[in-house]
Amino acid sequence: MKRVFLIVLDSCGIGYEPDAAEFGDVGADTLRTCAASPEFRMDNLIAMGLGNLDGVDYLPTCSAPRAALARLQERSRGKDTTIGHWEIAGIVSSEPLPTYPEGFPEEVLQPFRAQTGRGVLCNRPYSGTQVIRDYGKEHLETGDLIVYTSADSVFQIAAHEAIVPPEQLYEYCRIARKILTGRHGVGRVIARPFEGEWPFSRTTRRHDFSLEPPGQTLLDAVVDAGKDMIAVGKIHDIFAGRGMTEFTYTAGNTDGLAKTLAYADKAFTGLCFVNLVDYDMLYGHRRDADGYARALHEFDAWLPGFLEKLGEDDCVIITADHGCDPGYLKHTDHTREYIPMIALGPRIRPVNLGTRLGFCDIAATCAELLGVALDTPGRSFAGDITGKD
Fold first, then answer.
1. Omega before 38 cis (within 30°)?
2. The domain boundary residue, chosen from 180, 195, 210
3. 98 closest CA partner among 107, 90, 89
4. 110 and 222 housed in the same domain
5. Ramachandran region of residue 237, left (φ > 0), alpha (ψ -120 to 50) or beta?
6. Quick check: 76 and 50 in contact, CB under 8 A?
7. What is the pLDDT of residues 205-256, one digit of tens each?
8. Which of 46, 78, 219, 231 could disulfide-link 247, Cβ–Cβ 3.0 to 4.6 Å?
């Protein structure tokens, strides 16, 4: 293949995994919940074979699917964005990243306060929208930073842009990132700027500072082979800026889709790795099934025009990184779920690969399709979907 587009529908899981009880997620099924919404319409992907995936017994099946299909089970010990994307890129994490259900210890907060010169508010798991409602006024009065976490491995810093300009907030995040290493090496330090008057609103100037991947990724392999590796959306942040020749941020799904469509018109050789974050950030965590369903329809309606731009030696793989079931009310965090693998392109043959163990199979497959060397425990299915040994 000359070009592979790898598009992650962030959090679009397709049913809880066998070990979901260990994560408190038995019964979670993101796509099933969305399919029950009156806003759900994915006619194009259903016609291509979406309903033929293992476990997707609530959508119509297709007698002549156009896509290669698989349901993938995670091998890593986690259910967050970082771990999921790392596995998609070829790294299996045997240990989960650290989480802080009781808040961060003094050995983290003391140097953070000392190096930023500011105090800390909250320091416990919290909803991102609720935390600025509850602590925003005190932050305005004191200048102290709102530090909070979630069920994920994250250290989040919220600050009003009138008190802490975004660039200053990013510098505070860089300070935290240097502190949070070793056994406190959280997956992401996240800047969460907000603005306005109470109850306040978050701005689009969020920025993630990720832990660097512990080994070679698909992205590194593509760059090492002298090919293009284009990152769209959160991909730059998730991989700490490593293993890419070009990157662009996005202002949400609509912008991400427009930028991906523009890259389809450009001449490059290699991988375009795309994250569409709104499913997770705007709809999954906020348990908004109708909003999630509308966003899935937007992607489904966009897809045929994108496929028309693919050349003979191009393909697209559509997948997810975890679940975030908007109908799961035991918590508002990610859910431990299988993910879909839907491959389309002129040279992709319609084959159902059933259920496979390892998101990392995507990395092995992309590496083989692009002809680059990658050391990963994943098993390539490139031959299965192209019909070539």
1. no
2. 210
3. 107
4. no
5. alpha
6. no
7. 998 898 999 999 999 999 999 999 999 999 999 999 999 999 999 999 999 9
8. 231
